[in-house]
């Protein structure tokens, strides 16, 4: 038997519709098997709190082995996992095709799904994962002003902390009543020019965050596409991508959202559009998680093949000789953070490549988990851990006295700026930086 695996990692489909998937006894058997392998390896100890939690459970029992850990304590490891996928993609030597067949993130997903199925998921977590519903309500004119004021009021935040378990210290993103989907002005009038690597027209999947919180990110994407004469449309109707519900373990809700999104997105894919999303977690959902949940669905496969991160698309467009580089404004020093859900897409550092096309721009790349991780870092019980995990990132992002702090994940960028002590440095999404560089 070889130690580790030299082959590229492969992923097995998620067998979530099999009744045995929700069998708690079988789940615990698999958790014990994988926990024992992790205990004997410990390479992932620095990635997140799941692994230190596991190793503490092992080291603090009389046997010093996994068999001595109480089964009811297994969930303590699960609750620390936010499905970033980094252990699978960057650390674990025992992933498939290795015979030990370790897929830690998807085992944690199974445990979350069992917890949800048993009705043990609390109201706070269900609420936070309902991003589309909350966004629709919170961004209603007049209501949005109340919500944004409450989210900034210390007394109200203390109440939210004690009643809902939303950390009072966490700086929350504002909502915007001028939703992206209602204010976007796409332009499909340009001629379609397909490249060797890229379709010549784009369909924009706006995402909940861009639609309700920072519509400017979507408008900047439109400005960049228009400047490069790429015909583009906004997807005519969309639901949440499903990633928040996946992280919750509510797989039936993921299926329902998929049934609302995929048929329409598949039509765009078959009409020759590149489908672009400006949130890495949403892109990953369509590229990886839905294809693993629905491996035999031809529409899901079509969408997977047509899905692009915006900088993946722009850099490939550059390689096709179809991207303008008439930048007018240097960016100076940029501290750029690569989100976990972008790293695990295995496409290289496309955002960095694009930023470095701008003259007189120096990019300080930070490739480590920021610690926010979807809704995890918003929760009262995990806030301090999220700041602890992010501490090395906060330090590294400030090392070069940057003019801009930037991350493809907008909430990670906000979290990083908070961790840096809000030093007055401008926080801009990478798409906004390219719009600035173009002088648009």
In short:
The chain has helices spanning 24-41, 50-59, 74-79, 86-91, 104-117, 123-128, 131-138, 143-150, 154-164, 180-183, 208-212, 215-227, 243-248, 251-270, 280-293, 298-306, 310-319, 340-343, 350-355, 383-397, 410-419, 430-438, and strands at 202-205, 232-234, 274-277, 307-308, 332-337, 361-366, 404-407, 426-427. With 440 residues, the chain is an alpha/beta fold.
Question: Could you list some keywords that capture this structure?
Answer:
440 residues; alpha/beta; 4-stranded parallel beta sheet; Rossmann fold; globular
Q: How would you portray this structure in words?
A:
By secondary structure, the protein is α/β, with parallel strands linked by helices. The protein folds into four domains: 19-117, no CATH class; 123-164, no CATH class; 180-316, 3-Layer(aba) Sandwich (Rossmann fold); 326-438, Rossmann fold (3-Layer(aba) Sandwich). The chain contains 22 helices and eight strands. It has helices at residues 24-41, 50-59, 74-79, 86-91, 104-117, 123-128, 131-138, 143-150, 154-164, 180-183, 208-212, 215-227, 243-248, 251-270, 280-293, 298-306, 310-319, 340-343, 350-355, 383-397, 410-419, 430-438; strands at 202-205, 232-234, 274-277, 307-308, 332-337, 361-366, 404-407, 426-427. The strands form two sheets. A four-stranded parallel sheet has the order 2-1-3-4, sandwiched between helices. The protein has a four-stranded parallel sheet with strand order 6-5-7-8. Strand 7, helix 21 and strand 8 (426-427) form a beta-alpha-beta unit. Helix 1 packs antiparallel against helix 5 (104-117) and helix 12 packs across helix 22 (430-438).
